[in-house]
Amino acid sequence: MELAARQQGLLSRAQARRLGFSRGAVDRLLLSGRWELAHRGVYRLAGSPRTWAQEVMSGCLAAGAGAVASFQTAGRLWGLDGMPRRPAEEIHISVPRPMCPAPWGNTKIHRPRNLGPKDVASRLGIPVTNLPRTLIDLGSVLEPRDLESALESALRKRDSLLGWLSDRLRRLGKRGREGAGGLNALVRRHLHGASVLDSALEVRVRQLLTSLGVGTPRTHHDIVDGKHHVANVDFAFPKPKVAIQAMGERVHRQRGRWLRDLQQISHLTSLGWSVICVSWEDLELRREAVGARVLQALERGRGGTPPPKRP
User: Fold this and answer.
1) Domain count, the chain
2) pTM for this predicted structure
3) What is the pLDDT of residues 87-113, one digit of tens each?
4) What is the pLDDT averaged over residues 249-275?
5) Which one of 133, 168, 191 terminates a domain?
6) Could you give the CA distance from residue 251 to residue 145 in angstroms, rounded to a whole number?
7) Which runs of consecutive H residues, i.e. helices, occur in the chain?
8) Rounded to whole angstroms, how far apart are CA atoms 202 and 195?
9) Is there a domain that residue 307 lies in?
10) For residue 285, what are the domain limits?
């Protein structure tokens, strides 16, 4: 029970045998309902909650010694942005060579050439690829915008990650590893001074601005009125005086924050700034309209004529 408590309520057949359970004893526990078959060669203690984390742990135990959660599954265990959240998503397991377990159910088996002890960590008691290795693996399977979101969220969790990740990329990426180039470019941007953004929404807003070809905005830009600090805006184009704020519901809909936002926008407007607030809903349902507003505001701020509205 102590072992199972550390393993999401599970233990493998090999572990049970090492603890002294004979094949007959295991069969009796299964027949009595005290143990349940969770996976091929993996048992669940009756009453332990069935969770996604338990399903991942079950896959690792079934794959054998040295198996670890990896790729999108590892990204979700680390809480990275940009990961799929579908209920039926695959469980990704990496095993060291020469192991070659057959895949089963919704489990996908990977056999990387260079998976070593330095690439492995633990989350919720589950063996998992560490953050640098997880990001390198994700570079080969995620869309560029999702990979950028994953990297930004990882950097928010661990400030020291950048140097560690750069070192791992030098050692793994130069061997022609698929996807390393895109991740390398994102890492180099931060090594050259790019700010780590505060949320997944800010990342999506920056991606929108990049797609518009309007140049590089200043991030987390302080705006002052004389000696008075007015606001710290997410993205700013200081000369045309255009500010873009990513308005996440969890923070900005709190009453105190909402009132402060209104005061800041009013003050910024009085100073000649155009303030564009962008929510998740705006990006998902009105992306082109938001882009047009940004372009119009920049054109006005630069003294030009706004482009005609699209029909």
Assistant:
1) 3
2) 0.83
3) 567 899 999 888 777 777 788 999 988
4) 82
5) 191
6) 23
7) 2-6, 13-18, 23-32, 52-63, 71-77, 131-138, 144-157, 161-173, 180-191, 200-212, 249-252, 255-270, 280-285, 287-301
8) 11
9) no
10) 200-301
Each residue of 31-56: pLDDT tens digit?
Answer: 999 999 988 889 999 989 999 999 99
Q: Could you tell me which of 176, 191, 96, 77 has the C-alpha nearest to residue 134?
A: 77
Write b or e for each residue in 19-44: b if 16 or more Cβ atoms lie within 10 A of its Cβ, otherwise e: eebeeeeeeebeeeeebbebbbbbbb
Measured between alpha carbons, how far is 137 from 85 in angstroms, rounded to an integer?
A: 18
Give the tokens for residue 59: 């896959």
What is the distance between the alpha carbons of residues 8 and 20, in angstroms, rounded to a whole number? Answer: 21
Q: Is residue 308 part of a domain?
A: no
Q: Is the peptide bond before 98 cis (omega within 30 degrees of 0)?
A: yes
Helix (H) or strand (E) holding 220: strand 218-225
User: What's the CATH number where 274 sits?
Assistant: 3.40.960.10
- 91 and 179 share a domain? yes
